[in-house]
Write a structure and sequence with these properties.
The chain contains one helix and no strands. The protein is mainly alpha-helical. The relative contact order is 0.06.
């Protein structure tokens, strides 16, 4: 079975790039979820504030 020879550059670069991309993906996912929750909260508050004056019967 032939052995493949990897250069030192490949051995050092590939794991670093994989780690960097995975960390960026995780941070991006957390940011997306947090942003989605923030938009949902703000829209609920806005709808609540718009409906509130009409419910008082004033």
């Amino acid at each position: 079975m032939p052995r493949t020879h990897l250069s030192l550059r490949q051995v050092l670069t590939v794991p670093y790039v994989a780690l960097t991309l995975s960390v960026a993906a995780i941070i991006g996912g957390f940011s997306y979820v947090a942003g989605s929750q923030a938009v949902s909260t703000v829209s609920e508050e806005l709808l609540r504030d718009m409906v509130k004056p009409h419910q008082s019967g004033g």
